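Q: What residues go here?
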């Protein structure tokens, strides 16, 4: 039975160095007690807790680096046009360049030197990643930076801006699976249990770290800007505040929750409330960043994908490197579906696993351009005018990462589903009734799962992971409205409103007896 928490490897040095020649650790793939000869020196295995008095974890990491510098870590990464032919493509850019599009105007992708990474077997990478879990060693205590060699291999640890994000809970949704879906292997990856309450932290730590590096190199970067439906601005403002970098956010007026709006304000961002939707904000920020020294932080920037892909690697870790059958992801601007594919694909390509799961992208019916494209047989993509949805973070009608998403779905034999407003709110309420507290976007993903279970596409024994992208506490008003039966033209079938009762013993007893008589034993 896989653990529902990240694996611990207490006997494996958190500072494991890459050997000068490829070597296979002496343990089996699922071993939790692995030691490597390259980490045997006492200075290299010193835990952060024994750091010199007065040093912090960043100081200790610097000392370790100077005492035992990395040997032959010739890992590198660069920007290339997305989905470019690896044989004929000649266009590439350093990650230290400020560039968002290829010469043809297409998306860029971060391409790693796979041949250098392949010099080490899959068992080595599994052991290395597992060894860093649960540590405070800078920067490897982060679920993102514990995979540093696969993320930004050339960045100095001194430049990294991290809140030790990632390492989020993989929750066995036992009652939801059995009671509502007749499934034994339903899991929920709670990416919303994070520093700012959403999965966006995973990508933002990478982007802001690179900006921090660029500013130290005296590149023309005054600050970082984004258009947002809420979660992106929260993550950007928090990480920029941590690094002392100005952040500028464009938010669609009256279209995000108060809980989301207050986060960038509290973190000191310069907030523009714009009388348009997300797509309008996105157009404005792209124009602004082309004229001013403001670094673009939206998912058009491929750096964020590098952080977000680590959630896929975490899922494999949490299953003892066994591959689930399905992973279901809510989709708005569509960078995340590609990020998960990229993480799974890298693990397969580098020998950590032998296959990848099938991916499902779930969209709100009120903002469903990918779903319509999929249902047309991928014949013609048409942007849509997104209507209001409780899943406000995915209320996007013209997604930037459409090409990335289509590629990921085709490569993983994936599926696209949609959820109406009533379906997603009912699904959210059902999940909450089993002990969770999920966001409406997770309700979209659960609706997709329910439809695929009903049609028999997903079987009762299929190991299925639903990605929960944000914390339910960001969307309490939608829950209040639902349980108050206060949503127009919605039955709110699973509403659980409070019962008003007089303040006397008899009245309370009458209400409780009635409740107990209806409650299943």
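A:
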């Amino acid at each position: 039975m896989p653990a529902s928490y990240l694996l611990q490897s207490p006997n494996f040095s958190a500072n494991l160095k890459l050997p000068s020649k490829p070597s296979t650790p002496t343990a089996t793939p699922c071993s939790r007690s692995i030691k490597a000869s390259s980490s045997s020196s006492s200075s290299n295995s010193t835990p952060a807790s024994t750091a010199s008095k007065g040093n912090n974890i960043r100081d200790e990491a610097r000392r370790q680096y100077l005492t035992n510098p990395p040997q032959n870590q010739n890992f590198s990464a660069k920007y290339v046009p997305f989905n470019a032919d690896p044989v004929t493509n000649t266009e590439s850019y350093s990650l230290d360049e400020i560039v968002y599009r290829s010469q043809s105007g297409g998306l860029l992708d971060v391409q790693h030197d796979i041949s250098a990474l392949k010099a080490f077997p899959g068992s080595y990478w599994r052991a290395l990643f597992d060894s860093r879990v649960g540590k405070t060693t800078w920067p490897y205590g982060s679920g993102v930076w514990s995979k540093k060699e696969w993320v930004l291999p050339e960045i100095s640890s001194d430049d990294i801006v991290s809140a030790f994000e990632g390492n989020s809970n993989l929750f066995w949704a036992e009652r939801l699976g059995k009671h509502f879906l007749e499934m034994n292997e339903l899991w929920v990856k709670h990416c919303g249990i994070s520093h700012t309450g959403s999965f966006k932290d995973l990508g933002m730590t990478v982007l802001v770290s690179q900006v921090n590096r660029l500013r130290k190199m005296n590149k023309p970067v005054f600050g970082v800007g984004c258009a947002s439906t809420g979660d992106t601005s929260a993550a950007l403002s928090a990480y920029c505040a941590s690094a002392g970098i100005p952040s500028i956010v464009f938010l669609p007026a009256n279209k995000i929750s108060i809980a989301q709006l207050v986060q960038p304000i509290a973190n000191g961002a310069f907030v523009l409330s714009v009388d348009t939707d997300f797509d309008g904000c996105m157009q404005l920020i792209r124009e602004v960043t082309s004229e001013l020294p403001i670094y673009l932080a939206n998912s058009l920037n491929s750096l964020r994908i590098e952080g977000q892909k680590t959630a896929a690697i975490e899922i494999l870790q949490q299953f003892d490197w066994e591959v689930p059958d399905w992973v279901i992801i809510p989709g708005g601007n569509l960078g995340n579906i590609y990020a998960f594919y990229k993480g799974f694909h890298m693990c397969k390509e580098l020998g950590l696993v032998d296959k990848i799961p099938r991916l499902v992208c779930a969209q709100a019916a009120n903002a469903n351009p990918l779903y319509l494209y999929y249902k047309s047989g991928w014949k013609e993509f048409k942007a849509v005018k997104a209507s209001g949805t409780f899943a406000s973070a995915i209320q996007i009608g013209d997604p930037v990462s459409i090409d990335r998403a289509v590629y990921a779905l085709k490569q993983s034999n994936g599926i696209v589903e949609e959820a109406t407003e009533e379906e997603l709110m009912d699904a959210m309420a059902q999940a909450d009734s089993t002990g969770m507290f999920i966001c409406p976007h997770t309700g979209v993903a659960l609706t997709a799962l329910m439809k695929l279970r009903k049609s028999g596409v997903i079987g009762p024994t299929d190991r299925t992971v639903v990605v929960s992208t944000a914390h339910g506490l960001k969307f309490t008003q939608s829950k209040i409205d639902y349980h108050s039966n206060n949503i127009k033209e919605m039955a709110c079938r699973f509403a659980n409103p409070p019962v008003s009762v007089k303040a006397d013993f008899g009245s309370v007893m009458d209400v409780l007896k009635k409740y107990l008589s209806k409650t299943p034993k």
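A: Context that may help when evaluating the design: The chain has a mean pLDDT of 89. DSSP finds 18 helices and twelve strands in the chain.
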